[in-house]
């Protein structure tokens, strides 16, 4: 995945973006904004717009794409308003999105607030990933659920790709963006292309599309518009004409200077590569139009909802905030019969934190199932004598079941979360602990390092060791639980240095 950040219209990145769009017929759309914590009379300000452009023809893999991140906090919005509008309504570009209507509302509001009147009111042709997913479910004979699945769940099921959403609520107005935010934003738009690619292959495999459309044969284009109109059944043939062939008809019909001027105008307007036949037919059959009504342009502020926010609710929220403050002692405390070794359970909202904790040598487990119920998390934390780490305030309501075993993490980014946990629980981290646990399963390593010969034997039928490592006289370690092999390569040394810096171990 090739990622480019566009922060100026005079930059080479913006030129690269416009050239790429002229060759792309499928684009994935997404937007990010700083989350709003309370009721407001205005929409959030979109600070990042993602465009994932498919490069090449239908045979190209979806991973051969370029993702552009438009930094709307730096770009002059009035200058790019018309350009973005043209992309959103271009008949030659199929736009993909996941529940993109809300993104479009916020995007339109952002442009209107900064001089980009009148914002945006439609996207066409458009296809929503939720409808594509339902189609794929139906073709597999699966029962279609009434509840809409998250993009993360759809990606994991269709692409086998785990899409972490822990950065969704991070501060997208802060600059510069972190590497994690850049990767997250790009992946969100990029995965839309992958899901559509599978859908497209499925549709094409099933056979011809749009059989009811009787398309005009290429040899008849030279007849001109008048000749076509005089042919029997011309109305059906005209319905089947593609936009990319309309210019040929106009040029064949033009017999005056005025008609020639119109023909040249069509050529100027069409700045993008036309869709190929199969994609055009998919758009005709499954494509949608995303429209904003006038009522969508104003935040829906309800007085009744405001009244429901009683003092009882406010008191409950304050109580939950107080629960998030750690009071201790933790279950591993020696005074409670523990072994003194910190142990945590990270739920799905802080799964990235689990890997960071393992990298600094701390025991950090994850739930046994992908979508655990609150009671399952509570039971696992209690039985294994762990502190449950989460960002879900609702879990704090179960605090009475396991005293001092639930902590709500305040920070959003993994490095900051790691430092928060180290400080709150007074963890002692030293350089010898770094990379001493398996980042894959949380297991411990075999104490004695393996030789190259022992590592090759251990990896047979399980893991491939690159040949370039054999001449480097490296030491290998093996996880005692999942048998994963590790070695002191470049990635290892980079990780060690990273956590030395994050934890400030040299100071």
UniProtKB/TrEMBL annotation:
InterPro entries cross-referenced by the UniProt entry: 3'-5'_exonuclease_dom, Exonuclease_MUT-7-like, Mut7-C_RNAse_dom, RNaseH-like_sf, RNaseH_sf
Superkingdom of the source species: Eukaryota
Annotated GO biological process: nucleobase-containing compound metabolic process
Coiled coil regions, renumbered to chain: none
GO MF entry, a single one: nucleic acid binding
Residue span(s) of domain 3'-5' exonuclease: 2-204
Protein name as it appears in the record: Uncharacterized protein isoform X2
């Amino acid at each position: 995945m090739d990622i480019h950040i566009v922060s100026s219209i005079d930059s080479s990145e913006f030129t690269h973006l416009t050239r790429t769009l002229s060759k792309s017929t499928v684009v994935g759309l997404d937007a990010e904004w700083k989350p709003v914590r309370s009721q407001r009379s205005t929409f959030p300000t979109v600070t990042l717009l993602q465009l994932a452009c498919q490069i090449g023809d239908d045979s190209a893999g979806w991973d051969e794409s370029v993702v552009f991140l438009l930094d709307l906090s730096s770009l002059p919005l009035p200058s790019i308003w018309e350009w973005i509008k043209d992309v959103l309504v271009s008949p030659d570009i199929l736009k993909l999105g996941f529940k993109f209507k809300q993104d479009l509302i916020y995007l339109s509001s952002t442009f209107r607030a900064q001089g980009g009147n009148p914002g945006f009111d439609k996207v066409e042709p458009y296809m929503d990933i939720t409808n594509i997913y339902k189609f794929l479910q139906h073709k597999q004979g699966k029962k279609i659920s009434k509840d809409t699945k998250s993009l993360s769940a759809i990606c994991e099921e269709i692409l086998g790709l785990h899409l972490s959403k822990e950065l969704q609520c991070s501060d997208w107005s802060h600059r510069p963006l972190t590497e994690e935010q850049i990767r997250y934003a790009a992946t969100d738009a990029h995965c839309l292309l992958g899901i559509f690619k599978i859908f497209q292959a499925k549709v094409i495999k099933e056979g011809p599309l749009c059989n009811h459309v009787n398309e005009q044969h290429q040899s008849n284009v030279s007849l001109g518009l008048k000749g076509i109109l005089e042919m029997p059944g011309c109305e059906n043939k005209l319905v089947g004409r593609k936009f990319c062939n309309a210019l040929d008809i106009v040029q064949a019909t033009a017999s005056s200077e005025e008609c020639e001027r119109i023909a040249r105008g069509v050529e100027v307007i069409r700045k993008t590569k036309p869709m190929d036949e199969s994609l055009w037919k998919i758009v005709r059959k499954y494509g949608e139009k995303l429209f904003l009504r006038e009522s969508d342009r104003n935040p829906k502020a309800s007085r009744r909802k405001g009244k429901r926010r009683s003092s009882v609710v406010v008191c409950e929220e304050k109580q939950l905030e107080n629960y998030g403050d750690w009071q201790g002692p933790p279950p591993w405390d020696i005074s409670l019969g523990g072994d003194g070794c910190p142990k945590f359970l990270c739920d799905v909202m802080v799964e990235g934190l689990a890997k960071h904790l393992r990298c600094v040598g701390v025991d950090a487990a994850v739930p046994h199932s992908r979508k655990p119920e609150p009671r399952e998390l509570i039971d696992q934390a209690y039985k294994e004598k762990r502190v449950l780490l989460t960002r879900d305030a609702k879990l704090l309501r179960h605090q009475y079941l396991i005293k001092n075993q639930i902590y709500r993490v305040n920070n959003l980014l993994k490095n900051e979360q790691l430092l928060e946990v180290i400080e709150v629980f007074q963890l002692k981290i030293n350089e010898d602990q770094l990379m001493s646990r398996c980042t894959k399963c949380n297991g411990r390593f075999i104490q004695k390092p393996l030789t190259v010969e022992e590592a090759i034997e251990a990896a047979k039928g399980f893991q491939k060791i690159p040949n370039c490592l054999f001449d480097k006289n490296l030491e290998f370690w093996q996880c005692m639980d999942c048998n994963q092999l590790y070695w002191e390569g470049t990635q290892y040394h980079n990780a060690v240095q990273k956590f030395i810096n994050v934890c400030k171990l040299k100071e």
